[in-house]
Amino acid sequence: MKEVIAVVRMNMMNQTKKALTAAGVDAFFAHEATGRGKGFVNPQVLSGAGEGYEEAASLLGEKGKLYPKRVITIVVEDDFVDAVVETLITTNKTGKPGDGKVFVLPLMDAVRVRTGESGMQSIS
């Protein structure tokens, strides 16, 4: 069992939901978040802005801003991970910075509260 966590653009959420459903993923969580990648931010300029240098802060402009994102969490069987990751990438890839990230983590167990089922039975 694996947990797939994807960070995607807000405006891609509807397309992502449709693509995941078409791929056979009916259950997932989605959370609103803000964040940014490390691209295009000069650490020296960022440090200077943090120390209060107005010139450095003006160089950051919008690059220091936190952007709205969606975080999607999906729990799937091990043999379904590649299909889920490929669906997420295909749906969200524009080739521009900010397309997002996909993380795959091992998941030790899951328990369905209503029935007490655990393991794969709890997610199927």
Give a quick precis of the structure.
The chain is of the alpha+beta class and 124 residues long. It is 30% helix and 25% strand. Strands 2-3-1-4 form a 4-stranded antiparallel beta sheet, covered by helices on one side.
Description of the molecule:
The chain has 124 residues and is an alpha+beta fold. The chain is 30% helix and 25% strand. It contains 4 helices and 4 strands; from the N terminus they run βαβααβαβ. A 4-stranded antiparallel β-sheet has the order 2-3-1-4, covered by helices on one side. Helix 1 runs antiparallel to helix 4 and helix 2 packs across helix 3.
Coarse shape: elongated
Number of strands: 4
* Uncertain ranges: none
N-to-C SSE string, H for helix and E for strand: EHEHHEHE
Biggest sheet strand order reads: 2-3-1-4
CATH C-level class is Alpha Beta
Distance between the termini: 11 Å
CATH names the topology as Alpha-Beta Plaits
Can you tag this structure with a few keywords?
alpha+beta; 30% helix; 4 helices; 4 strands; Alpha-Beta Plaits
List the helices and strands and how they pair.
Layout: E1 2-9, H1 13-22, E2 29-35, H2 43-50, H3 54-60, E3 67-76, H4 81-92, E4 101-106
Antiparallel strand pairs: 1-3, 1-4, 2-3
Helix pairs in contact: 1-4, 2-3
